[in-house]
Each structure stands twice: as C-alpha cells, then as structure tokens.
What we know:
Elements: H1 2-16, H2 18-34, H3 38-43, E1 45-51, E2 59-60, H4 62-74, E3 78-89, E4 95-106, E5 115-126, E6 132-139, E7 143-145, H5 147-155
Parallel strand pairs: 1-6
Antiparallel strand pairs: 1-2, 3-4, 4-5, 5-6, 5-7
Organism: Rhodanobacter spathiphylli B39
GO molecular function: isomerase activity
Keywords: Isomerase, Signal
Amino acid sequence: MLLLACVVAPVMAQAATPECAVWQRELSFAQSVQKHDAAAFAGHVMADAVFDANSPQPTRGRAAIIQHWAPMIAGRTMRLDWYPQQVVVSGDGTLAYSSGAYLFENMAPGAKRRYTIGRFATTWRRAVDGVWRAAFDGGDEGRPASATEANAFRAGRVTACPRSDTAALPVIRH
C-alpha cells in the first residue's frame, strides 16, 4: 500500500497543477484536429475567442473559428499538428499562456512546399465550469521544412507535463 501511495501521489500532484492542466488541454486540443473531431475542437474554444489574433484580420467567435478551421479539422488536403513547449498560469489561476511548435503538412500530390514548421501561442481562460478554453490563438507564418525536420518535430513531442515540485517548465530559447 505504501508503494502504491509513493507512485500515485506524485502523479496526482503533477496532474493537479494548473500548468499541467493547461498542458494536457493543449495536447487534447491538438488531438481534436488529429482525430478530425469538430465537436471536440469546438469544446476547446471560448464562445468569444479570437484566432489568428496576431494577424491583420483575426477570426472572431467560435462559429467563425470552426468554419475557418474546417479544412484543417477534416485533414483531407492539409494536416496540422502542434504541441506545447511552455505553459505559464496567472497568479489567480484564471488565465494561462501556452506556446510551442506546429507542423503543417500540405497533402497535395507533388506539393512544392510539403512541410511548414512554426510557432504558436494560445491564451487560455478558465471558464465558469472550471474547463480551460482557448480565448486567443495565433502563430507565425512558419518556414519551409524538410521531411527530416518534420520527423524531428514528431519525435520532440512531450506528452507528459514536465512540471513537478522540483522542476520548472522548459524555457524557450530562440
């Protein structure tokens, strides 16, 4: 019993941190696109969200965002994948910032630019129901990438929150 407590308690403590909750939520958000699940995707987005927030023409509101993202969610002509590399939560635990890498894959046969790698940033708001939902989302234009770089992106995915009582989340250096 003591052994079980020594194994389960640290895992539960890690999952309970707000940073780890947002980390897992970001992974779940990406998974909704990978699984082509528009309903799950919508469940990650605030009703008043703003996507492409760093662009001259942001997309406003969940319905417009879902419509704009429909081709990416369908995944027939393009695939999008991403994962967090940094999460920071506000002192009051109601806002969070996550950022990381994304990989865009053009599925068109003979596409000149098959892969694009870039960076994204999402601002999360904890809703009244306690669920973290994306309030603002944006990213850079990315850069062309090789198949080797795409494979490195996939290999770099960290699915477990790196946060623990003795370690901080990674710092991103450009």
